[in-house]
Structure formats: structure tokens, C-alpha cells
């Protein structure tokens, strides 16, 4: 009994335990399921948020891509639209051109029809004239036949009367007429030759006079000074500098004489060389504009101005050949043409003289039916040998001919340059024209003054004489040739040697040159120490 009770109690206990265990398991399971559901809900919510975020990002990307595609589409559309507009504009222009061409073609067709009608009328008129000529020819033939018959009858009667045949009578008549014709021909030829000589002389004078009358020229003016205008006396004081140091520096750098007197608002630049005067004038202009006037600045400005003058020489040459209509000239020859502006011959400006000769040659060649352009070219270049910068022992005509040959000028031009002073034989019709026009330009009233040329020549010889001494760097003749100012190299010439040098130069001037009055020889030795801060 106890055993059964024990078994029953055990079974009851086990059942109760099972029931309680199941309930506990159910509670635990429910709790886990609830937590799982909550986690699942949280995960779902996170997934939904992520999905929403991804959706928004995809939508933004889609919008950006849409906007990009839209922009590209619009750009492509605009480009195509612009291209279509351009093509449409070109088509309209082409249509207008075709319309214009069609109008021109119609006008040409109208002109051709008009010409065709005129030709037809002329053809009808010619046909009528030809018919009339044929009728006249028939009448003439008929009359010629009648005349031949009458002449034959008369010849037969004459032969019968004279007892000579027609051939014999013809021979006698020919001999008589031949002698008479020879006499008359000789007299006629003599008259023609005399008339030709008179006519040729008259025509030649006519050509020369017409050429001179058709050329406007200027008179030579002896000018050795330039006037520089200033605004006030204060500026004049700056130009002079303390104790005149600026004036001395400018004179030493340019080789001219600066005259500052009581003339209001003006400074006079004196010098025989026009290039030096122009350099001094332009340098003064720049210094006054700049306001900084002192010896170092003066030297700097003068150096720059000298370089600018070289550029101006090229510009003058180019402007001259353009004005005269001369093309294809070598650059070196153009530069020499520009140098003529600063050279004179017996007081006559060389560039003005060459331009004048070029115009005279062109006019005379045109009157004679020759090549006017070639004659003008030869006239401009005929004195090119005078401006060759290097010293040469050849006459300027031969030197100019060699330069023209060097720079591949026309053979007729080369011969005209070399022969205009009879140094070589003339082989072209242009050569005597250049010679004549050179004489016309140089010998006309007011063209030249020999006194000016000899004066400048004396001053140049004076400078060259002093430049040959060792140690001399620069040499300028000033005061109308009454003073010779010489700059020497301080490294090679001492103070004692400077005094001896001035005496030697003055002695050589007395022995080798002729001059009025006396010449003051001034030797200037300046010591400079130069260093650079780096």
C-alpha cells in the first residue's frame, strides 16, 4: 500500500512538475517571442528607415542624372539650333548671292542681246556697204577697161608718130625721171635731216622744261642751329644746373654747343652736324618732361636717344620709298635712304635732292616713253654712295654702283648710278636721264651753296685730325669751328699728357689746315670710379 502510495505520489509529483515545467517553459517562450517580436519590429523599422534613405538617395541621384541629361539635351539642342540658324543664315546669304548672280546673269544676257542686236545692225550695214563697194568695183573695172582700150589706141598712134616702140619710150622716160628723182630726193633728205635736228633740239628742250615745271622744289637753307622751346625760366635753370654742370654734361655727350641767353622761353642748340643737333634736341625734350636733370641722367637719355635716331633713320627710309611708290628695295638700301635725311651736299639736303631727282627722272622718262618706275628708282639711289658709313677711297658713284650690285638691283639702275658722273660708260637710256636730272636738281637757283659745304667739310676735317691721336675717345668742333673740344681716356692719358696733347694737336692744326682766326684746343680728362652693389 505504501508502495502504491509512494508510486502515486511520485506520479502526481511528476505530473505536477511537468505541468509546472510546461507553464514555466511557456512563460519563458512567450517572453522570448515577445523580445524576438520587438527585435523584429526594431529591425523592420530600421530596414524601413534604411529603405527610405536609400530611396531618397536613389531619387536624388535620379534627379541629378535627370538634370544632367536635361542640361546636356538642352546644350545639344541649342548647339543644333545655333547650327541650324547658322546654316539657315548661310543658306539665305547663298540665296541672296545666287539671286544677285542671277540678276547679274540676266543683266549680262541683256547686254549680250543688245550687243548681238548692234552686231546684227552693223552686219546689215556692212552688207549694204559691201554691195555698194561691189557696184563701185564693177563701175571702176568697166571704166578701167575703157581707159586701157583708149590708152592702147593712144600708144599705137604715138608709136606711129614718133617711130619708137612703147618699151623704148618707157626706158627713155624712166632714165629722165630717175635723174630728176635723185636730185629731188637728195634735196629732200637734206631738208629732212636739218628739220629733224631742229625738232629734236626743240623737243628735248620742251621735255626738260616741262619736267622742271612739273616738279615743286625747295631752296637750300644754311642752318646750323636748332631752337628748343621751354615753358618757363625755372625749367631753363634746371637745364643749366649748378654752375652749368648739366650744360657741360650735355655738350660733352652730344658734341653740340648749348647757348642759353636772354631769349625768353628758348634754348639754342648749335652744331654743324644735324644728327647731333637732333639728338641734343630730343634729349632735352625728354629730360624736361622727366624733370630729373643731372649728368648721369643726361648720359643715359642721350644714349637712348641715339638708339632712337637709328630707328628713326629706318622709318624715314621706309616712308620715303612708300611716298615715291618704290617697292622691293633691300632693307640696307632703305636704311641708307633714311641716312640721307641727315646729310647735305653744298647746303642741299641729300634726301630732298634724291627725291627731287627721282621725280624728275620719272617725269622725263614718261615723256620719252621709257620705264618711269625704273627711272624713279635709279634717281632715288644715284647718290647712295655718299651715305656709306665706312671710309672708302672710291668715288661715291662707283661705291653706290657696287652697293646696288651687292643688293641685287636692276642692271639698268646699277649702270645709271655708276655713270651719272661719267665714271663708267652708259649702257642704258635711263643713265643719261639720271645724269641730266641730277644736274637740273643741283644747278637750279637756290639749290646749293658751296660755302656751307666747305664750312662743314673743314669742321669734319678738324674733328678727324684730333681723333687720330692715341687716347682720344670723342672730339667735337664747336663755336663755329673756333674751339675744338677733345675727350680723352683717363686710363691712358695722364694730366701731364693732356697738356702735351693739346699742344701737339694745335701744332698739327697750324701745319695741315687753313682756317680764319684762331682755334682753341681744349682737352678734357675726367676720372670716374664705378662699382656695382650686388
TrEMBL record:
Keywords: Cell membrane, Endonuclease, Hydrolase, Membrane, Nuclease, RNA-binding, Transmembrane, Transmembrane helix
Polar residues biased stretches: 112-131
Highest taxon, organism lineage: Bacteria
Ranges of residues in domain HD: 350-443
EC number(s) given by UniProt: 3.1.-.-
Basic and acidic residues bias: start-end ranges: 133-147
Annotated Gene Ontology cellular component terms: plasma membrane
Family per similarity comment: Belongs to the RNase Y family.
NCBIfam families: HDIG, RNase_Y
Protein name: Ribonuclease Y
Gene name per UniProt: rny
Amino acid at each position: 500500500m505504501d508502495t502504491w502510495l509512494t508510486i502515486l505520489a511520485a506520479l502526481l509529483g511528476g505530473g505536477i512538475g511537468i505541468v509546472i515545467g510546461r507553464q514555466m517553459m511557456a512563460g519563458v517562450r512567450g517572453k522570448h517571442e515577445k523580445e524576438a517580436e520587438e527585435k523584429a519590429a526594431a529591425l523592420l523599422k530600421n530596414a524601413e528607415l534604411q529603405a527610405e534613405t536609400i530611396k531618397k538617395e536613389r531619387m536624388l541621384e535620379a534627379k541629378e542624372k535627370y538634370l544632367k541629361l536635361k542640361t546636356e539635351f538642352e546644350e545639344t539642342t541649342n548647339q543644333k539650333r545655333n547650327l541650324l540658324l547658322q546654316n539657315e543664315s548661310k543658306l539665305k546669304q547663298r540665296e541672296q548671292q545666287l539671286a544677285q548672280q542671277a540678276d547679274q546673269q540676266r543683266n549680262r544676257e541683256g547686254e549680250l542681246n543688245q550687243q548681238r542686236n548692234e552686231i546684227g545692225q552693223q552686219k546689215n550695214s556692212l552688207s549694204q556697204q559691201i554691195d555698194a563697194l561691189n557696184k563701185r568695183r564693177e563701175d571702176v573695172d568697166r571704166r578701167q577697161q575703157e581707159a586701157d582700150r583708149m590708152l592702147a589706141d593712144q600708144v599705137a598712134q604715138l608709136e606711129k608718130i614718133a617711130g619708137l616702140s612703147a618699151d623704148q619710150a618707157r626706158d627713155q622716160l624712166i632714165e629722165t625721171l630717175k635723174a630728176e628723182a635723185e636730185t629731188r630726193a637728195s634735196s629732200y633728205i637734206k631738208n629732212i635731216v636739218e628739220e629733224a635736228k631742229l625738232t629734236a633740239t626743240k623737243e628735248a628742250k620742251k621735255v626738260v622744261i616741262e619736267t622742271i615745271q612739273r616738279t615743286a622744289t625747295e631752296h637750300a637753307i644754311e642752318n646750323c642751329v636748332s631752337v628748343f622751346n621751354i615753358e618757363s625760366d625755372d625749367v631753363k635753370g634746371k637745364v643749366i644746373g649748378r654752375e652749368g654742370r648739366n650744360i657741360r654734361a650735355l655738350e660733352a655727350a652730344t658734341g653740340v654747343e648749348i647757348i642759353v641767353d636772354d631769349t625768353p622761353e628758348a634754348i639754342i642748340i648749335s652744331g654743324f652736324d644735324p644728327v647731333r643737333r637732333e639728338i641734343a634736341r630730343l634729349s632735352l625734350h625728354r629730360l624736361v618732361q622727366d624733370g630729373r636733370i643731372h649728368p648721369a641722367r643726361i648720359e643715359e637719355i642721350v644714349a637712348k636717344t641715339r638708339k632712337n635716331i637709328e630707328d628713326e633713320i629706318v622709318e624715314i627710309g621706309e616712308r620715303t620709298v612708300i611716298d615715291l611708290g618704290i617697292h622691293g628695295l633691300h632693307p640696307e638700301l632703305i636704311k641708307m635712304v633714311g641716312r640721307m635725311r641727315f646729310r647735305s651736299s653744298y647746303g642741299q639736303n641729300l634726301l630732298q635732292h634724291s627725291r627731287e631727282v627721282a621725280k624728275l627722272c620719272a617725269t622725263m622718262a614718261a615723256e620719252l616713253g621709257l620705264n618711269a618706275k625704273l627711272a624713279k628708282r635709279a634717281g632715288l639711289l644715284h647718290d647712295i654712295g655718299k651715305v656709306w658709313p665706312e671710309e672708302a677711297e672710291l668715288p661715291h658713284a662707283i661705291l653706290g654702283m657696287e652697293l646696288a650690285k651687292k643688293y641685287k638691283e636692276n642692271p639698268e639702275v646699277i649702270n645709271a648710278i655708276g655713270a651719272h658722273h661719267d665714271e663708267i660708260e652708259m649702257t642704258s637710256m635711263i643713265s643719261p636721264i639720271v645724269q641730266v636730272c641730277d644736274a637740273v636738281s643741283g644747278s637750279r637757283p637756290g639749290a646749293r651753296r658751296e660755302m656751307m659745304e666747305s664750312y662743314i667739310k673743314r669742321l669734319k676735317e678738324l674733328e678727324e685730325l684730333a681723333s687720330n691721336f692715341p687716347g682720344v675717345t670723342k672730339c667735337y668742333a664747336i663755336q663755329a669751328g673756333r674751339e675744338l673740344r677733345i675727350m680723352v681716356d683717363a686710363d691712358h692719358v695722364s694730366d701731364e699728357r693732356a697738356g702735351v696733347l693739346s699742344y701737339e694737336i694745335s701744332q698739327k692744326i697750324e701745319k695741315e689746315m687753313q682756317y680764319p682766326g684762331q682755334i682753341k684746343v681744349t682737352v678734357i680728362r675726367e676720372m670716374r670710379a664705378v662699382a656695382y652693389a650686388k
